[in-house]
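Standup notes
- DV: blocked on the single-chain target, sequence here:
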Amino acid sequence: MDVKIDEKFVLNNYEAKNKEEVIMKLANILLQEGVVKDSFLRSVLEREKRFPTGLPTEPVKIAIPHTDAEHCNSSAIAVATLTEPVRFGLMGDDKETVDVRIIFLLALNKKEEQAIFLSKFSQFICDSKVIEEILLANDSSYVASILKDRLCN
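- DV (later): unblocked, structure below
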């Protein structure tokens, strides 16, 4: 699966009030680059209410908001590391929440390839050293290079 990963899609040490603000910021970057359709942001926010994506990974908790392929023109990942955590619903348990420091906004436009990519991505987020390295990075190009090395090879 061809997934675009670019330093323009990475926000380091972003200050956000809540998850909606972060998702909106990342979705607007992807919209400006033509990666997603106008419907993408609304669809991600609606899906997040029904199927939360916060994960209690250690040492850094993450979230992977996404939506259906029909809202994407191409495939890409946008990333935000936060100065302070924002609260996401816990994946698989919409009554619990998790304070997240890294958000990976996934835009995947090929429904038939999503399962393969998500399997690879799941292995990636289980590497606590890499996730911590992304959180501590102050360089967007460095974060993009980590993602390319791990997900596109």
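- Follow-up: The chain is about 40% helix and 25% strand.
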